[in-house]
Structures are given as C-alpha cells and as structure tokens.
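User: Okay, second chain of the day. Same drill as before: sequence in, structure tokens out.
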Amino acid sequence: MRNPKRRAREASKALKRPAMGTKAQRALASQREAMKRESVRARSQRRADEAEARFEQRKLRRKQGHRGH
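Assistant: Same drill. Structure tokens below.
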C-alpha cells in the first residue's frame, strides 16, 4: 500500500510474463521465495539485536563515566 503505482507496474509485468512451466520449477520458485522471506526476517532480527547491544554498550559507558569521581 506504500506505492500503488509500483504495485500496479509489478502486477502488469507479472501478467505479461509467462507462468512457470513445470511443477518442479514452481516448487523451486516457492522455495526460493521462502528462503528470501526467512533471510529478510533473520536480517531484521539481527539488526534489532545489534541495535540493542549498542544501546547496552552506551548505557554501560555512561554508567562507567559517572562512577569514577
């Protein structure tokens, strides 16, 4: 819903392309899509974890800076 013009272009391109021929090709394509979704999910999780770790490091450094009076 972010970019309706892009979605319309992609839909028209998909209609112009010939569909996958064999059952094996369709299976490979769906497997590839599943792997792509999994990698996107893992990447976003990793980014979130790294951001949390950076925040914890900053918090620790701030605490260390306040301790040594």
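The radius of gyration is 23 Å.

User: Thanks, on to the next one.
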